[in-house]
Specification:
single chain, about 325 residues, alpha/beta, Rossmann fold, UDP-galactose 4-epimerase, domain 1, 2 domains, 7-stranded parallel beta sheet, 10 helices, binds uridine-5'-diphosphate
Length: about 325
């Protein structure tokens, strides 16, 4: 059984990756500092409590578990926070990733799957966002992820570290069995905040900006189901196992939805009113982020079959009603 070190395995996407890895016959080894991860989300393999800022923790994990490959999810990932604390984003994301990349190289672990973001592209008017689009990030989150992509390329050239980079669009939804799901404290993401507002668990949702140059004035995003997203990672692992060249793939559906459209769909799925107020723009937000690439479908054989807005909100709502973490 191949062993995969999953950094951030106790987080939202990482825990779904662990479930998918186990189902695909791998042993996922979670590496997490539990700053934002949840112990209850670690259900699918062993766990190492450690910090990417501490190289010795990573070396110990490699020595104990001898992973065949790495899936690197652990990162600070909130645009709003990155605008206020850029230093923390550069420091944590870049130094932590560099420690991990150096440790993997030293341990002879040469297959690396990296969680990057469409935030590396920044704002491009009327440009199809494909993998060749110039990366001009608007915030330290996107910029730190772009820097890590550069580090991976340098380590491939110098040390043969092979990689698949996935640039995510907006990840949404939850495990259809509601064993795991999205749960951030504090929560900043649109769909979970909306479901909380519907449920009366928090105040009305604030729509961040209604004067964007879009048909209804609100930002447009390309939402992809977390289960489809992690399926792509399994395909990315096979890609590396099959000896293919390092590659970059966008993970989005190519369809964009405005904040108002997400509100309408949430109302339809839950059959309840969505309390919301209109507010000012959030600093660092791009007007429209929609993938213009079908490379993942064409080359990896990826099929994002659960990524309709209705399915994502249905699965998120099921998780919202059935599960949450406390520790
Ligand atoms: N958004 C919003 N109100 C909120 C949270 C998010 O209007 O309370 C908007 C945000 O401006 C963006 C979209 O919803 O256009 C998705 O934001 P999210 O934070 O979920 O993901 P991001 O696009 O920042 O990765």
């Amino acid at each position: 059984m191949k062993r995969i070190l999953v950094t951030g395995g106790a987080g939202y996407i990482g825990s779904h990756a662990c479930k998918a890895l186990k189902a695909a016959g791998y042993l996922p080894i979670t590496f997490d500092n539990f700053d934002t991860g949840w112990r209850e989300a670690v259900k699918f393999g062993p766990v190492v409590e450690g910090d990417l800022m501490n190289r010795a923790d990573i070396d110990a994990a490699f020595a104990e578990h001898q992973p065949d490959a790495v899936m690197h999810f652990a990162a600070l990932s909130q645009v709003g926070e990155a605008m206020k604390e850029p230093g923390r984003y550069w420091h944590t994301n870049v130094t932590g990733s560099l420690n991990l990349i150096e440790a993997a190289t030293a341990a002879g672990c040469r297959d690396f799957v990296f969680s990057s973001t469409c935030a590396t592209y920044g704002e491009h008017d009327n440009v199809v966002l494909d993998e060749a689009t110039t990366q001009l990030p608007l915030n330290a989150y996107g910029a730190s992820k772009r820097a890590i992509e550069d580090i991976l390329r340098d380590f491939e050239a110098a040390h043969g570290l092979r990689h698949v980079i996935f640039r995510y669009f907006n990840v949404a939804g939850a495990d259809p069995e509601a064993e795991i799901g999205e749960f951030h404290r504090p929560e900043t993401h649109l769909i979970p905040l909306m479901l909380d507002a519907i449920d009366g668990k928090r105040d009305a949702l604030t729509v961040f900006g209604t004067d964007y140059d879009t048909p209804d004035g609100t930002c447009i995003r390309d939402y992809v189901h977390v289960c489809d997203l992690v399926d792509a990672h399994i395909l990315g692992l096979s890609w590396l196992e099959n000896g293919k060249d390092s590659a970059v793939f966008n993970l989005g559906t190519g369809r964009g939805f405005s904040v108002r459209e997400v509100i309408d769909q949430s109302k339809a799925v839950t059959n309840r009113a969505v309390p919301f107020v209109e507010g000012p723009r959030r600093a660092g937000d791009a007007t429209k982020l929609v993938s213009g690439s079908t490379r993942a479908e064409a080359e990896l054989g990826w099929t994002p079959s659960r990524s309709t807005l209705q399915q994502m909100i249905t699965d998120a709502w099921r998780w919202h009603q059935n599960g949450h973490y406390t520790r």
